[in-house]
């Protein structure tokens, strides 16, 4: 009789068994929620950053070798020209008296992006941060290795639209990455891939 009750279950036993079955199910339901959504997009971030950095580096090498101390090259009449200049300030020639500060800021941006990469699961955010990282690395390379000295180097700029400051591809990458981040933020997309609505 006791054996039959053990197999069939008494009136109190199903509740206990039910509790035992519901808890594992609840645990199983929580596991997928705790797991990250998809794969981390660190590879996308660093691929975009490497592309932006190399494009900027190669363009500056060509400009220094072929265009520096030469006449400007007109691309679209006088509306867009290539002219080599050395910029000790920030992007687009602002703040030439604070070269060291801009160098520190660029280094800090790189560190922040590298730390943020650990919880990055969004491709658009990976692209945006990759452009920021590549641009920051491009200009930081100039700050460190170009004259007049380490951390005080002048950045090579060469893209000169009419009635606008002269800039380079690193500046363009930084601005485009920043614009994309603003758009993603307005749309409620977080770096971890979640979407929130205010």
Which features characterize this protein?
mainly alpha, 58% helix, 6 helices, single chain, 10% strand
Protein architecture, described:
The protein has 198 residues and is mainly alpha-helical. The protein contains six helices and three strands, in the order H-H-H-E-E-H-H-E-H. The chain has helices spanning 2-8, 12-34, 42-66, 99-116, 123-145, 169-186; strands at 73-76, 80-87, 155-161. The protein has a three-stranded antiparallel beta sheet with strand order 1-2-3. A hairpin with a 3-residue loop joins strand 1 (73-76) and strand 2. Helix 4 (99-116) packs antiparallel against helix 5 (123-145) and helix 5 runs antiparallel to helix 6. The longest helix has 25 residues, at 42-66. The protein is globular and about 50 Å long.
Question: How would you summarize the topology of this molecule?
Answer:
Layout: H1 2-8, H2 12-34, H3 42-66, E1 73-76, E2 80-87, H4 99-116, H5 123-145, E3 155-161, H6 169-186
Antiparallel strand pairs: 1-2, 2-3
Helix pairs in contact: 3-5, 4-5, 5-6
Structural class: mainly alpha
Q: Give the neighbour order of strands across the main sheet.
A: 1-2-3
End-to-end Cα distance = 62 Å
Which spans have pLDDT < 50 for at least 5 consecutive residues? 1-24, 26-36
How many DSSP H or I helices? Answer: 6
Number of strands: 3
Reported for the largest beta sheet, the result is:
3 strands, antiparallel
Overall pLDDT metric: 81
Q: Give the CA-based shape.
A: globular
**Proportion of β residues?**
5-15%
Order of helices and strands: HHHEEHHEH
Assembly category: single chain
**What portion of residues is helical?**
55-70%
* CA gyration radius, whole angstroms: 28 Å
């Amino acid at each position: 009789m006791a054996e039959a009750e053990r197999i069939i279950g008494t009136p109190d036993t199903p509740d206990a068994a039910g509790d035992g079955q519901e808890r594992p199910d609840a645990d199983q339901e929580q596991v997928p929620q705790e797991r990250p959504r998809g794969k981390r997009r660190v590879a996308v971030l660093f691929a975009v950053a490497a592309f932006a950095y190399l494009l900027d580096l190669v363009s500056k090498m060509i400009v220094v070798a072929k265009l520096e101390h030469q006449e400007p090259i007109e691309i679209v009449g006088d509306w867009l020209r290539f002219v080599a200049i050395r910029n000790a300030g920030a992007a687009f020639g602002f703040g030439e008296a604070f070269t060291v500060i801009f160098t520190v800021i660029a280094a800090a941006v790189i560190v922040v992006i590298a730390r943020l990469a650990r919880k990055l699961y969004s491709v658009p955010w990976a692209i945006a941060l990759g452009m920021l990282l590549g641009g920051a690395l491009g200009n930081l390379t100039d700050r460190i290795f170009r004259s007049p000295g380490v951390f005080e180097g002048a950045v090579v700029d060469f893209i000169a639209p009419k009635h606008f400051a002269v800039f380079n591809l690193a500046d363009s990458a930084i601005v485009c990455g920043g614009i994309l981040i603003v758009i993603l933020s307005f749309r409620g997309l977080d770096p971890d891939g979640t979407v929130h609505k205010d």
